[in-house]
Design goal:
107 residues; mainly alpha; 6 helices; 72% helix
Length: 107
């Protein structure tokens, strides 16, 4: 878990510049803003649609529009995960204990 948190403190080199800037700015967020950022920003509706597209892709080739939608949703999902991980990493670095359910997920 510590290695995961340490990795989240530094943005991966292959992410878009705007995402890297957003993650870097999180170091300046208040604790309250960081706790808010630990909440998923990828909605259940988006999750369901991505799952539908992934299922369709396993059955047949996706149309160009479906491929574009799938790529957009996947990027949104990845950004949500990165935001949450970065917020948790900064909070942990500041000495805040992580919620128990997150600690159990890591085990």
């Amino acid at each position: 878990m510590v290695a995961t948190l340490n990795a989240a403190l530094v943005a991966p080199p292959d992410i878009p510049g705007d995402v890297a800037e957003e993650l870097a700015a999180m170091n300046l967020f208040s604790d309250e803003a960081l706790w808010a950022a630990t909440q998923p920003s990828f909605s259940p509706t988006e999750q369901m649609r991505l799952a539908q597209l992934n299922h369709k892709a396993g059955e047949r080739p996706l149309t160009e529009a479906e491929q574009a939608e799938q790529a957009r949703l996947l990027l949104a999902y990845q950004r949500s995960i990165l935001r949450r991980a970065k917020a948790l990493a900064v909070l942990a670095q500041r000495g805040h204990p992580l919620p128990i359910e997150l600690q159990e997920d890591a085990e």
